[in-house]
Every structure is written in C-alpha cells, then in structure tokens.
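chain below, 348 aa
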Amino acid sequence: MKMTHTVAEQPADWTERGVFPVAPGLYRMPLPLPLVGLPAVNVYVLEGPDGLILIDAGWASQEAYDRLGQGLAELGHRLGDIDTFVITHAHWDHYSLASRVRQDHPQVGLVVGRGERETIEGYTSEIGIHGGQSAQLRRHGAAEIADRVDAKDREAYERDVPFDAPSRYLAEGDRLPLADGSLQIEETPGHTKGHLTVRWPAAGMLFTGDHVLPNATPALAMELVPDEHPLRTYLDSLRRTRADPDALMLPAHGPIGGSVHARTEELLAHHAERLTEIEHLVAGGSRTALEMARALPWTKRERKLDDLDVVHQMSAVMEVVAHLLVLQDEGRVRSQTDGDFPRWVPAR
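prediction:
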C-alpha cells in the first residue's frame, strides 16, 4: 500500500535540542542520554482527552527532567499536565524519567507492556540491570565480559535511577484515547519480551520504539529474565509488522519518517545474512559464541568485538547465541556439551 501521509520537516541532526512539530497534534522532543553511542531518545507528545499523552520518557537525569519541563512549557503546558506516559519497553532510557516525574506528580499515569512485568517487579539494585545477560554470558564462555558487565552495573549512576511499577500493564489490542481518535497497542516482543509498538491509524503512523530503528539493529532480549529464543521471537514480530498496514516510522532513536515496511525488510534481510555468516563460521571451525563474536564485524563501521564498549560486547555475544539457536531450530548447526559451555558444530 502506498503511503500518502507525511511528517513535518525535521532538523538534519535528529538529536538537536528543541520541540519539533511532526503532524497536527504531535510533537517530537529529543532528550539526552548518558549512553555510549546513543545520545538521545525521541519523546513524542500528543493531546489526550484528559491531558498530554507522552510516548516514551527518557532517562531520569536532571538534564532530561529539566528539558522535558522546558519543552512542555514551549507548548503551553507543564509536567503536571501529563495524563499518561506510554512506554514502549522498560529500559531505563525509555522508562526511568517517567518514574522520576511521578515522584513530583503522582497523579500521572505510566503504562507499559505486560511482558515487562518480570523485569520491572524483579529488579533490585543488587541484581543490576544486566543480571540476566551476565548469567547467559557465563553459560556461553564469556565470563570475562560478564565480570565487566557486573562491575558496570554497580556504578552509582545506574543504581540510583528510579524504577517503580507502572499504573497498569498493556496488552495487544488495547486502545488509548486521544483528543481526536485513539492509539492502538501492538505487542512486538524481541528487543524485550514486553516491547510494544503504538499505532496511530488516523495519521498512518507507527511509534516503533526500539523494535524498528532507522540506523541500527536492535539488541535482543536485553532484560532481567531473557527470552529463551529471542531472535525467533523478534523475527516473528518483524513479520507481523510487515503483514500489518504500512506506516510512517516514528522510532525512539534516530530520524523519523520513511516506510516501516521498507525498514522491516532491511532488518529481516540483515538477520538472514547474519545467520548465513554464523553458519559459515561454524563450518569453518569456530566452536563458541565468543569465538564467533570476535570473528564478525559489528556496527556499520564494522568494528571488532574488542573495540566495542563492554555493553555492546555483551550484546554482540548474546546476538550470536540468539542466531545459533535459530540455526539449531532450522537443523543447520547443533550444540555439543564439551566442558563448561556449549560448543557448536555443523548439523551433519
């Protein structure tokens, strides 16, 4: 289906500070993040029947809190005018600023996908935000990376971020009223088990969170209790998105606009290519996920694993594991128990 909807012209740098009209009744506000390689998150502001609806919130830093308040003031509002934060998933760069706002304005609602319950209700500062990934890294022979991940989780800037329970959990098909029309909730697990995309049918737009990003391939199963088969889950979600009506892409990170279907096809092609690359590595004698992660290029700059920061090293190793599990499901490789962690060999 050919799309006829458009978005308003945006700055060349999507992270530029400000409040930018997207379409009638919709604004985009990039808020800063304290993360390597990820400078900002897009927060979207719409009018609801009882106040503002914000899609995603940002990181609970003082700078982001101040910028959110300043941005709303430019629109003639204040933080207390927010009716509900609709959070695409429970990562801190999306969720924690909503928790911080609610400390000052407890009447503000906070909703998130039902699949995030285990991560939200199971989190403690002692476990850290990467406890699930750390355990998986150790199971797959990457204990040194796991040790550094655990050390990073003990950093104060992460331990002190507010992370409270939502007002309620959302499910597939839930609708949220706007001043004119409504938003439709779609469950798109993969990046996390409870990831949501939010469709605005009347505008022909889809708020894609981290499910479909314009310039990056989302990390998989980044949560306290990871999905056992995250790539299979993510590919199913991508195929579901491709089967739904096309829409203009409003991502959490990166420039807006463009076809959701076109980018979804690119992501499906990327993972098909990655599956083939990893299958070839196994055929060539690579036996562990860590070995394969070191042999593969990462990011658009095709960097080596050891050149990445520790969180991206963790993501890379876990991405290889996720692809190996799909290859095993498809009968293209198999695992052997040899020592303390799985070793992978050709299926035949």
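The first helix runs from residue 62 to 74. The chain has a mean pLDDT of 92.
thats it, cya
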